[in-house]
Amino acid sequence: xxxxxxxxxxxALALASPAVAQNPDPLHGRNLAAACANCHGTNGASQGGxxxxxxxxxxxxxRQMQDFKSGRRPATVMHQIARGYTDAQIDAIAxxxxxxxxx
Length: 103
Known about the structure:
Order of helices and strands: HHHHHH
Number of strands: 0
Helix content: 55-70%
Number of helices: 6
Strand content: under 5%
Distance between the termini: 57 Å
């Protein structure tokens, strides 16, 4: 393939990137929050023992995850889990879980 083809392809990718950033996947938060179901229940609605996350305040959920991530809040497992997420991923998880209904 020729250089002009690669140049055009690179330019198309560069122009498409802002569009992707402006229109994120609406299922992104749900997909990330699926890992929370192991302990906190499906869609964050716990069946007992571990706190439910469904329907909680978005800012509070994000703050608590950030506290786990930074070590400000002690934990047995959550500090390790939270460190695996970027700030944007934590925000997406909090946004999704805050919209879920409690059982």
